[in-house]
Specification:
Among the domains are: 40-71, no CATH class; 82-145, Roll (SH3 type barrels), CATH 2.30.30. The protein is 13% helix and 34% strand. The protein is built from one helix and nine strands, in the order αβββββββββ. It has one helix at 5-23; strands at 52-55, 63-66, 87-92, 97-101, 104-107, 111-116, 119-128, 132-137, 140-145. The strands form three sheets. The protein has a four-stranded antiparallel sheet, with no helix packed on it. A three-stranded antiparallel sheet has the order 3-4-5, with no helix packed on it. A two-stranded antiparallel sheet has the order 1-2.
Length: 150
């Protein structure tokens, strides 16, 4: 009796599987030790604190002459020099008037830190009238009036 060709192929493959299992070739594979992660070198940026020579981190052979850092002060906002404040304009409604002082819009009772040519000033807007604004800077009160062009 003739067996179909597909049956012969399946029979041969199953014989190979059985023989490899009996011979011990099908032992579970042992896991290989995990490879160590590659170490990535870190860039070192050395900046001298008191001036002197420093190395460019991107071009190590280039030496840069660093300047000594300038002294900075973190002082509180200045509360003098009220003369640096200029009333630029008035707007708003009669119940809520607005004054533009050095480019900052303020309303009655508002306190704001305004940058001027003289530095930063802590300005308190006391009152706003039809043609002026009364401000207080460091306990000193002054009325700022609109400038006339004539």
């Amino acid at each position: 009796m003739k067996t179909p060709r597909l049956f012969n192929i399946v029979l041969n493959l199953s014989a190979i599987v059985v023989l490899s299992a009996v011979s011990g070739n099908s032992a579970p594979a042992t896991k290989a030790a995990p490879e160590a992660e590659p170490v990535i070198p870190q860039s070192v940026f050395s900046i001298p604190t008191n001036g002197g020579a420093a190395h460019d981190p991107f071009f190590p052979n280039r030496i840069i002459q660093a300047e000594a850092p300038k002294a900075t002060t973190n002082a509180a906002p200045r509360t003098s020099n009220i003369g640096c404040l200029v009333l630029k304009g008035l707007s708003g409604t009669p119940s809520k008037p607005l004054a533009m002082i050095n480019g900052y819009t303020m309303t009655r009772g508002e306190e704001s830190e305004i940058t001027t040519e003289c530095g930063k000033l802590l300005v308190h807007c006391v009152d706003i009238t039809t043609n002026s604004a009364i401000v207080e800077v460091g306990g000193e009160r002054r009325e700022l009036r609109l400038r006339s062009n004539f």
